[in-house]
Automatic annotation (TrEMBL), chain A:
Matching CDD domains: TM_ABC_iron-siderophores_like
Gene Ontology biological process terms, A to Z: response to zinc ion; transmembrane transport
Transmembrane domains' residue ranges: 6-28, 37-53, 59-79, 91-110, 145-163, 175-199, 205-224, 231-250, 256-276
Location of the protein in the cell: Cell membrane
Topology within the bilayer: Multi-pass membrane protein
Gene3D superfamilies, alphabetized: ABC transporter involved in vitamin B12 uptake, BtuC
Name the UniProt record assigns to this protein: Manganese transport system membrane protein MntB
InterPro entries cross-referenced by the UniProt entry: ABC_BtuC-like, ABC_TroCD
UniProt entry keywords in alphabetical sequence: Cell membrane, Membrane, Transmembrane, Transmembrane helix, Transport
One GO CC term, this protein: ATP-binding cassette (ABC) transporter complex
Length: 295, 306
């Protein structure tokens, strides 16, 4: 029997890994805010599917949520293509409306179920070990650990299969198009992966931590290296660290775990921002001094 | 119907609340015009999320839930967050969207930590900090409205005083530099005003959806005109309409959070403008494209006949 503390940390680590993997490519495509949009708007899909099935554990909820994630991306593109709204406004308009639909449905029709708006937004990983996975009467561990591991495997498969395509279309979309990679397929493929990851993660850690894990460790790694492989590796390590350190800090101070994980990742970003070898504040200051003395 | 309308004006609490959401709509509409035109639409999203730790820390330090205290906390953190974003973009290779994502999620995460500290205190339920997440207009008191009114009033007066400078900042900052205006300071001032507009809306709409109040009315106003003054006036009007009707609906329906209703109404106004606005709107574009097509065909026919 594994202790609940260990289980929570295991879930935190697996969730962080899945999020940072998907987040790395999102960030490189300058679509960091898409993680915010998707992690909010999937609520509408979950709420509508719940109205239809009346069962919070139905797999239809996940399908509907993934679809809503893609609908978000699609609607943003439609609005952008009218040339009447800029892309960031389109993102802001679409996800806030979808999220509002979700919140209204939940607060009107799903008051008494485990589908609380606060829980959706904030997440509480501390409760994750209570939802167990049983086969017959055998307790196989927390359910979310299985879900997140499956998602992590999907992410690893997706990225290792399409590494080349993702890399080229992130750094040189023009070249990718010339070489014959359909930008649409790569784009929507990545968005599907992001949506699925966001759904799995937001059930355990809440939608804002999804943003924290998808954006902060990859960008911290981005400050520390220029190589994509190292960036993925470093952001995975940082993700694991923020999972474990965040949990330990939360346990020590008795505060919100997901909030503490986000805070730890923020502190690590701040450190990298200051001491990063080539681009940090200290390095920039040294450069400045060098130029000053030599002139 | 008339009886219903009369009952609104006789209901003191509702009148207070409606006044509050009207003020919020006007302020966020007008200042949203500037964020929209400067392509900083999602700035509001980051700033409003970042205000959360400010609210919680202000409560922890003073143990008071008076609006002046809580909103000052929100103002300070909102402002610090906008500075952080400026810093990240200026001193690293990270782009604007990445800076938004980092600041938003880290500040909000820190806010959650602080909120969980608050919730451990005895009597913290009365503080009602949770209403800041999704907004609850029904709980607005006279005190709240006065604070909101004063803050937005100041913000709007400053906006009108510096109208020309802001206009220059939006459309042609380089020209501003060359004629010797302190464009950096003007930029910081405008950001401060936007932070004020966001903070005043937090109690009504909530931190999660406040960004929509900056984007939707301004995007709706943009469709009807090419003039900044008219666009700002329209945005203020659309903001006020969505604020007031949203609050009415949510206060008359049980279990209905205010923020989401207001957001959906403002989105509906935006969608209507996108479709039906003259000249820029989608339908009028289709009609003019069709007309062009017809005249082209007619011209072609006459040319061929010759």
């Amino acid at each position: 029997m594994i202790s609940p503390q260990f289980e929570i940390q295991l879930i935190a680590v697996v969730t962080s890994l899945a999020c940072t993997l998907a987040g790395t490519f999102l960030v490189l495509r300058k679509m960091a805010m898409m993680s915010d949009a998707i992690s909010h708007s999937i609520l509408a899909g979950i709420a509508i599917a719940f109205l239809y099935t009346k069962d919070i554990h139905s797999p239809l909820l996940i399908v509907a949520a993934t679809a809503t994630g893609l609908v978000t991306v699609f609607l943003v593109e439609i609005l952008k293509n009218t040339n009447l709204v800029s892309e960031d406004s389109a993102i802001g308009l679409v996800f806030t409306s979808l999220f509002s639909v979700g919140v209204i449905i939940i607060s009107k029709y799903a008051r008494n179920v485990h589908l609380d708006t606060d829980a959706v937004l904030l997440g509480e990983i501390a409760f994750a070990p209570f939802r167990r996975f049983y086969i017959g009467n055998i307790d196989l561990g927390p359910k979310s650990l299985y879900i997140m591991t499956a998602i992590l495997i999907v992410n690893i498969l997706f990225i290792s299969l399409f590494y080349k395509e993702l890399k080229i279309s992130a750094f040189d979309p023009g070249l990718a198009f010339v070489l014959g990679f359909s930008p649409g397929i790569v784009h929507y493929g990545l968005m599907t992966v992001v949506s699925i990851t966001a759904i799995g993660a937001f059930d355990t850690v809440g939608s804002i931590l999804v943003v924290a894990l998808m954006v902060v460790p990859p960008l911290t790694a981005y400050l520390l290296t220029d190589k994509l492989k190292f960036m993925i590796l470093i952001s995975a390590i940082l993700g694991i660290l923020s999972g474990i350190l965040g949990y330990q800090a939360a346990h020590l101070l008795d505060v919100s775990i997901s909030g503490s994980m986000a805070t730890v990742s923020g502190i690590m970003f701040f450190l990298a921002f200051i001491i990063s070898p080539q681009k940090g504040i200290i390095a920039a200051f040294r450069q400045y001094k060098k130029v000053k003395t030599s002139s | 119907m008339i009886g219903y309308l009369l009952s609104i004006f006789q209901d003191y609490t509702l009148r207070t609340v409606l006044l509050g959401s009207g003020i919020l709509g006007i302020t966020s509409g007008i200042l949203g015009t500037f964020t929209l035109l400067r392509k900083q639409s999602l700035l509001g999203d980051a700033v409003s999320h970042s205000a959360l730790p400010g609210i919680a820390i202000a409560f922890l330090l003073t143990k008071s839930s008076s609006p002046v205290v809580l909103l000052s906390g929100a103002l300070i953190f909102g402002w610090v967050s906008s500075l952080c974003m400026m810093f990240i973009v200026k001193y690293s290779k990270i782009k604007y969207d990445g800076a938004l994502g980092i600041v938003l999620s880290v500040f909000f995460g820190f806010g959650l930590v602080m909120l969980s500290v608050v919730q451990k205190l005895p009597n913290s339920r009365q503080a009602g900090l949770n209403k800041f997440l999704f907004g609850q207009a029904a709980t607005l008191l006279k005190e709240d409205i006065i604070t909101m009114g004063i803050l937005s009033g100041i913000a709007l007066i400053i906006t009108f005083v510096f109208w020309k400078e802001f206009k220059l900042l939006v459309f042609n900052p380089e020209f501003g530099y060359t004629i010797g205006l302190p464009m950096k300071k003007i930029d910081i001032l405008l950001t401060c005003l936007i932070v004020v507009a966001i903070v005043t809306g937090l109690q009504t709409v909530g931190v999660v959806l406040m960004s929509a109040m900056l984007i939707a009315p301004a995007s709706a106003g943009r469709q009807w005109t090419d003039r900044l003054e008219i666009m700002a006036a329209l945005a203020g009007f659309f903001g006020a309409v969505s604020g007031i009707t949203g609050t009415l609906i949510s206060s008359k329906t049980p279990n209905m959070p205010t923020g989401p209703v207001i957001v959906l109404i403002s989105f509906a106004l935006f969608a209507f403008s996108l479709l039906f606005a003259p000249k820029r709107g989608i339908i009028s574009r289709l009609i003019s494209a069709h007309k062009n097509n017809l005249t082209f065909k007619n011209n072609l026919k006459t040319t061929i006949r010759r």
